[in-house]
């Protein structure tokens, strides 16, 4: 294990990929511990309590989703899935299981590092205080007062529009799946009515985005869900 910075656990069975990831991370000052199977990954996570986990789904002994489930039973460490599986269903399943982000192989070192920085910065902000104030350019959202303003003028949001925005803010810079949003905004009986989300997201963008057709803050993750992007690292990676 290397000797400085936040600790990252790499769970990956391909030796060349692990070596490449280790080199990238150590060069940026991270500590690294490695595992090549799901069982070893769970064991290492318990032994070392990593600050973040990079997880491949195609492990030899067990699907990587089992590692996500096991981690979530006791750890809040962010999990970034690194997988060659690019199907939307794979992304949705991983995110619904508790992963924080999903990168499809191959990916650039810069994008990986940007996602890691974002995940680490937001560990303590997953549940912002109820009186938190967020700024999106000239838009200000005051959760305590339940007031949204743009350029100093109050913006009227319907109850569902406001709840949708609030949920995205509370998961800022993380992908939130369609299912998660529907259940948090409309209730546990809803999970497949994605048309609701499209309609309300269009309305939110019209009210909050500088150029609604090219959203800066309320970003679509195609086929998966939405991300409210506060951190510009994700835009410049």
TrEMBL record:
It comes from Nannocystis radixulma. The modification 4-aspartylphosphate is found at residue 56. Residues 131-230 form the OmpR/PhoB-type domain. The keyword Phosphoprotein applies. Keywords: DNA-binding, Phosphoprotein. The keyword DNA-binding applies. Residues 7-120 form the Response regulatory domain. Residues 131-230 bind DNA. This is Response regulator.
